[in-house]
Hints:
It is a single chain. The protein is mostly helical and 148 residues long. It has one domain. 80% of the residues lie in helices and 0% in strands. It has six helices and no strands. Helix 4 (81-96) packs parallel to helix 6 (123-147). The chain crosses the membrane at residues 12-32, 44-64, 85-107, 127-146. This is DUF1648 domain-containing protein. It comes from Bacillus yapensis. Keywords: Membrane, Transmembrane, Transmembrane helix.
Amino acid sequence: MITQQRKTNKWYTTILTLTILIPIVYVLYLLLMVQNENQSIEELLNTQPIYVVLLLVSFINPIWGHFLNQIPKEARVKKGRGDRFLSLMLISQVVVGNLIMAFLVFITKRKLPHTSNTQPLTAFEKTVASILLVLSLFSGFVLLKLTL
């Protein structure tokens, strides 16, 4: 059981780390683009609206990470709050096309230890997850429209 918990913690920590790193790396990428094209960030975002949507998507991830981090370790089990929140995050990541993060979320869900009692999300967690899912669906729709 302890080995299983360590594996779970490793995957869970990886997701938490990536939720923080994704927006930082994306902002650095945008700054490099601005520097290479000799234009302001405002000009770049106005001429390429897809970057605005991707910026929104990148800033949704730290919110997912924050709420995943707030779930106590004992609730990070199958059919627990962690599992349910990871399921919603998986949907969000697939909708916006973040397949690497979706894969990591899927692996983390599979590695969660089993429990006999179920733990539903709190009303606040459901509300936040719903808002994040709506933002993800909106972003995914806009990304689809911009790329077609």
